[in-house]
Amino acid sequence: MSNLKKVQDFLVDRQIDAALITNPDNIFYLSNFRSDPHERLLGVVIFKEKEPFIICPSMEVSDVKAIGWPHDVIGYKDTDNAFEFLEKAILDRISELTLLAIEKEHLTVDRFEILQERFPALLFAKSDDMLAKNRLIKDVREIEYLRKAAQLADYAIEVGCGEIAEGKTELEIVQAVEQAVKQKGAEKMAFETIIISGKKTASPHGIPGDRRIEKGDFILFDLGVVYKGYCSDITRTVSFGEPAEAKLKIYETVKKAQQAAIDTVRPGILAKEVDLAARSIIDEAGYGELFPHRIGHGLGISVHEYPSITEHNNLPLEEGMVFTIEPGIYDPEITGVRIEDDVLVTKDGVEVLTKFPKELKIIE
Amino acid sequence: MSNLKKVQDFLVDRQIDAALITNPDNIFYLSNFRSDPHERLLGVVIFKEKEPFIICPSMEVSDVKAIGWPHDVIGYKDTDNAFEFLEKAILDRISELTLLAIEKEHLTVDRFEILQERFPALLFAKSDDMLAKNRLIKDVREIEYLRKAAQLADYAIEVGCGEIAEGKTELEIVQAVEQAVKQKGAEKMAFETIIISGKKTASPHGIPGDRRIEKGDFILFDLGVVYKGYCSDITRTVSFGEPAEAKLKIYETVKKAQQAAIDTVRPGILAKEVDLAARSIIDEAGYGELFPHRIGHGLGISVHEYPSITEHNNLPLEEGMVFTIEPGIYDPEITGVRIEDDVLVTKDGVEVLTKFPKELKIIE
After folding, report:
1. In chain A, which residues have their Cβ closer than 8 Å to the Cβ of B104?
2. What is the fold of B3-135?
3. In chain A, where do the E strands start and end?
4. What is the rounded average pLDDT for all residues in chain B?
5. Cβ atoms A330, A353 nearer than 8 A
6. Strands ordered across the beta sheet of B305-309
7. Which of A17, A149, A239, A362 could form an SS bridge with A227, CB 3.0 to 4.6 Å?
8. A303 to chain B: closest CA residue
């Protein structure tokens, strides 16, 4: 069933007149059209019975048609009132709009107020959960793209390890890795590449800079690529020179915790069990306070999507879900270590999409 | 006066208890802290009289402190309810919250509803315009960063021209340009680099791909970099081999229109006059229908910010404003051409920040 049809079924089922979809990731999911509209209005409008349309800046109309969108495209100029065009296009298709589904997690308050002004009697429904749920289970084509994105992430780590050398800066390695992975077929990076070294690894969201790598450093790579619109996300931590005992102990604890979490994954277990499998090992080793984030997040068109793998999420895993497993320990006095894989829930277990080895790599 | 103080003055002036700032670009403007929070809550809360605080994921608390934020930082874990922490932190500082300024152009409907539930009697004010207005006039330090970002954009065009050769793909040139400009000091690209060739140039938002460059193509570069948090944005169109007459005519029309627009810029003229100066030349040359966008947009921490330079904007220009001037003509049968500079309104005229030559460059 097409992705648009699933939304239509939702509208029929809930007796909602139409859905206005404005989140670019959902627009891509529904139309295959990808654009960053900045402050301009870009939307897909879907009806219970009528054909859907895309509304976009007039200068993008030909791009929408070029990707094969078979329905109407409404273009407006920068000097037009986009919402006037939207209102007219809706009322050209249905006589009355009484209930509209919107993405409450994406639509901004000012646009919500504009809709309220244009349609004073309009009621609103939330479409976020329906869309997130539709995107939660990946189909064969999506899994193929996610596998390929994961392979490219593995390759990026391989390149990154080869770049490590005394005196090189973090940013120099970022550049070499990004260049190599794009030459190999990545459309772009899925998020800003993190390659940090030494005690900077103790910040889970550290920013690469001009720090020069020294013997004895742990170096943490957290990166991902986009392949045909789908994201990967991998983390590996490696040692430049022989590691001190305290670092080794942290590394082995994270590695054991990460594997324990992977080993829990199969259809029917709860998301929280994945988190808790790793968390209990880290807690028992005495590092509980140094693991300040959930163990993972869903992965697909967005680099963060559902399911959220937290110690409180009672969602049962299902075949076709894809998410990260990424425990970490961050000791500001010693080092940070995080190990992250992308995993797919299979019919009877798990497929780990990222395959770069997890034995501690010691680079001389 | 510090940027935080300007917000405080606004709150005092309007008798607003507090402001919740969640747009990452505004957070950077107010705190110098830059982070992409994805679905997590990241905010700066500013009060009429009390000290401001930042609320962020606990794993980023040390990053906020490391950049020198001298006020409180409230961290929450992934399993915490971030809005519970927000509510408590506000009510720890003021006994009652009755009027809160929010960014209506950024805050999502679901977060707005959460705030309404937590503070049932709360009224909301809009802070977008105040913040946009504060950011509209650039100070000396900001102008220095914008100049440097523009220089790096010039350099990127120079590198790009040097890469043009028979059979090279658009994406290969993108990679070479991005690598070179990052090695030269750009933090990252300001947006996804556009390098498109042949008839693809007729799409204002075209996407680089595997098309191989051929003799006779026009090649359009639209790119920008971030330097110390500030963006540049340049477009140049060059010819690979001798251009056909029809292409040359389009090029010269755009060039003349762009220069005419630049020549209007000085304090006191209206934003629309800049647009109309170029538009009338393009109209007179018979290409009016093929120029489907406004002439430019403000530039600073965001790659699109105020002022918006449209044919309807009656805003008088002021010293310290920075924006793009980028007319284009897009003929799907012949070629697209766009020429874009970043300009600063000076005391008595204009400074063009991007300086790459605009004579049609013919690459043999």
Report:
1. 108-110, 113
2. Creatine Amidinohydrolase; Chain A, domain 1 (3.40.350)
3. 18-21, 43-47, 53-57, 72-76, 99-102, 123-126, 188-189, 194-197, 218-223, 225-227, 230-231, 234-240, 296-298, 305-309, 322-325, 328-331, 335-338, 341-345, 350-352, 362-363
4. 96
5. no
6. B305-309, B296-298, B322-325, B341-345, B350-352
7. A149
8. B38
Distance CA B262, CA B299 (A): 16
Judged by CB atoms closer than 8 Å, whether chains meet at B105 and A104 is answered as no
Every domain of chain B with CATH number 3.40.350.10 lies at 3-135
Q: What is the ipTM of this complex?
A: 0.90
Q: Supply B305's token pair.
A: 């910010």
Q: Phi and psi at residue A316, in whole multiples of 5°?
A: -75, 135
- Looking at residue A275, its pLDDT comes to 98
Cβ of B293 within 8 Å of Cβ of A106? The answer is no
Name the pTM for this structure.
0.91
CB burial of B233-263 (b: ≥16 within 10 Å; e: otherwise) equals bbbbbbbbeebeeebbbbbebbbbbbbbbbe
- Kindly give, in sequence order, each residue whose CB lies less than 8 Å from that of residue B280, ignoring residues fewer than 6 positions away: none
Query: A305 and A126 in contact (C-beta within 8 Å)?
Result: no
Q: How far is A201 from chain B (nearest CA, A)?
A: 12
Closest-CA distance, B264 to chain A, in angstroms, reads 20
Q: A57 and chain B: CB distance < 8 Å anywhere?
A: yes
| Cβ–Cβ gap B106/A108 under 8 Å | yes
pLDDT tens for B97-155 read 999 999 999 999 999 999 999 999 999 999 999 999 999 999 999 999 999 999 999 99
Residues of chain A with CATH 3.90.230.10: 137-363
Domain covering A137-363: architecture: Alpha-Beta Complex (3.90)
User: In angstroms, rounded to a whole number, what is the distance separating the alpha carbons of residues A174 and A334?
Assistant: 23
Q: Is the Cβ of A113 closer than 8 Å to some Cβ of chain B? A: yes
Residue B192 sits at the chain A interface (C-beta within 8 Å)? yes
